[in-house]
From TrEMBL:
It comes from the Bacteria. The keyword Nucleotide-binding does not apply. Gene3D superfamilies: alpha/beta hydrolase. One of its GO terms (molecular function) is hydrolase activity. Residues 28-131 form the AB hydrolase-1 domain. The keyword Acyltransferase does not apply. Keywords: Hydrolase. The lineage of its organism: Bacteria, Pseudomonadati, Pseudomonadota, Gammaproteobacteria, Oceanospirillales. This is Hydrolase-related protein.
Length: 259
């Protein structure tokens, strides 16, 4: 496991890389985290994924999250598109990623989709996990419920363990951006139409932040088959059913059988 610090125009980004021992060189998998996430909140998923797939796995904290520098101001409503143009592009340049696979969780799945289209010449595969393709009431209701839960004793302190003094900004950016009038009509359709690489769409059947209409929209507009639905699983498969999630991803990324 190696650590990287990536300087950008607006601040520094923290990244980590897990490389499986004794594996043949293959394009790495780059992870994009959710609205409250960071490298640390992937827990042991990156290491386990690296071992299962035989690929290096890279995860980074977006600006304003985890160990990266604070975001300079309020999160703009174009933040999903911006990540492909700025944060991910800086990571790719700094680490010299000529080819890669993108895996995004929740809003990170939307960011991965935009990046897959923008970097189409280099992206070998796109994996979305619990991603949103448009704003729906189920998502907004789930966010409101989560916001109320953060009033419980100790909840903000736990968030601060991962984001430090940025924790309040992280929470407010999630709640306020998704409920903003300017974000109400956001959808991912245009970005989905730009995806050219094989795509794997994964969604928990019990996802509290997105109906099954979300993965079906993503799958219908990208190269791939029907979405993979995980039974008895909610919004965070890498914590709720990591073995099943990793096996689905491993099979998707496995090289074709020879002969």
């Amino acid at each position: 496991m190696t650590s990287h610090w990536i300087e950008t125009e607006h601040g520094g980004l923290h990244a980590m890389c897990w490389s499986p021992p004794g594996s043949a060189p293959r394009s790495p998998v780059v992870l994009l985290h959710d609205s409250l996430g960071c490298v640390g909140l992937w827990r042991d998923f990156p290491e386990r994924l690296a071992r299962a797939t035989g690929r290096a796995v890279v995860a980074y904290d977006r600006l304003g999250y985890g160990r990266s520098d604070p975001y300079p101001g309020s999160l703009p409503h174009r933040f999903i598109d911006d990540e492909a143009r700025h944060g991910f592009a800086a990571l790719r340049h700094r680490l010299g990623l000529e080819r890669f696979v993108l895996l995004g969780h929740s809003v990170g799945g939307a960011m991965a989709t935009v990046a897959a289209g923008r970097h189409a010449e280099a992206c070998e595969g796109l994996i979305t996990v619990s991603a949103q393709a448009y704003v729906e009431e189920r998502t907004l209701a789930g966010i409101r419920e989560a916001e109320r839960a953060f009033h419980e004793p100790g909840r903000m302190a736990r968030l601060a363990r991962h984001h430090g003094a940025k924790a309040d900004w992280v929470l407010r950016s999630w709640v306020d951006t998704w409920h903003a009038e300017a974000f109400r009509h956001w959808c991912l359709d245009e970005a989905l139409a730009e995806v050219r690489c094989p795509t794997l769409v994964i969604h928990g059947e019990c996802d509290e932040y997105g109906s099954l209409g979300q993965p079906r929209r993503i799958a219908s507009l990208t190269p791939g088959g029907e979405p993979t639905l995980l039974s008895d699983c909610g919004h965070v498969p890498h914590r709720e059913c990591p073995e099943r999630l990793i096996e689905v991803i491993r099979a998707f990324l496995a090289p074709p059988a020879s002969g």
